[in-house]
Amino acid sequence: MVDEDLEVVAVAVIKKNNRLTGMLASAGCALLSGLPTQAQAAELDLWDFDTATLIYAEGDGRVSALEPVISATRNFDSETKLNLKLAIDTLTGASPNGATPSDQAQTFARPSGKGRYTISEGEQPLDDTFKDGRGAFSATWSAPINRDWAYTAGGYLSSEHDYQSLGANGSVSRYLNQKNTTLTFGMNLSSDTLNPEGGLPVGLNRVPTFGSTAFSTDFDNSRDGSSDNKQVVDIILGLTQVIDRKTLVQFNYSLSASSGYLNDPYKIVSVIDDASGANYGGHYQLAGNNLYLYEKRPDSRLKQALFWQGKRQLNNGDILDLSYRFMFDDWGINSHTLDLRYRWNLGQHYLEPQLRWYSQSAADFYQRYVTASEYPALDDVSADYRLGDLDTYTIGLRYGYHLREGKELYTRVSFYQETNTGQSGIGKLSRQELYPDNTAVMMTVGYRF
Amino acid sequence: MQRTIILSTLLFSMLLAGCSNLGVKPWERDILAKQEMQLISDPVEAGLDDHIYFSKEATSGGRGFGGGGCGCN
Question: Residue A439: CA atoms inside 13 Å, Cβ hemisphere, count?
Answer without folding.
Answer: 9
